[in-house]
Fold this sequence. Notes:
Blueprint: H1 22-35, E1 47-54, E2 57-68, E3 75-84, E4 88-94, E5 101-102, E6 109-112, H2 115-130, E7 134-141, E8 144-152, E9 158-161, E10 171-176, H3 185-191
Antiparallel strand pairs: 1-2, 2-3, 3-4, 4-5, 4-6, 7-8, 7-10, 8-9
Amino acid sequence: xxxxxxxxxxxxxxxxxxxxxxxxxxxxxxxxxxxxxxxxxxxxxxxxxxxxxxxxxxxxxxxxxxxxxxxxxxxxxxxxxxxxxxxxxxxxxxxxxxxxxxxxxxxxxxxxxxxxxxxxxxxxxxxxxxxxxxxxxxxxxxxxxxxxxxxxxxxxxxxxxxxxxxxxxxxxxxxxxxxxxxxxxxxxxxxxxxxxxxxxxxxx
Length: 204
């Protein structure tokens, strides 16, 4: 087998041992078709799919991990995902390993229709999630970054942080998070309207 025969990573790859539904497989096929178009600024390994049985019905869960590639080490910002039940799609943010769904206005989705229609809606939603305007707050002490916090631009809602941010913590700078193909002139233009603050810690 040469390198060209080795299969590449699969978008939203479920566990093959889990029992899938016909509608779920149709949904995944349509979602992968959009994912493989090359328009997303993430890798297939950032996506996940799983079938699970809840109260005698099988649901498909699809998730996407969002990262900050400019942080060192690369930081996980947020997990977004949705449940597909055959004719309904409900999604938002996952904050724990139990995949408890949190529905916030900036990240929620809910729709009904055929598997193919809902896969299209899910693809559009994941595209929007990859374009979420996120800011990184960096806190410094003695010229050294001691904490980082990621918030939504515009609302300031915290998505995650390395440590708990307390009132009065020494904020050194706020910078927009660059993700994949959103870099360059298009990325800078996108964030101009949010005017991230630049704080000089020396006060000069």
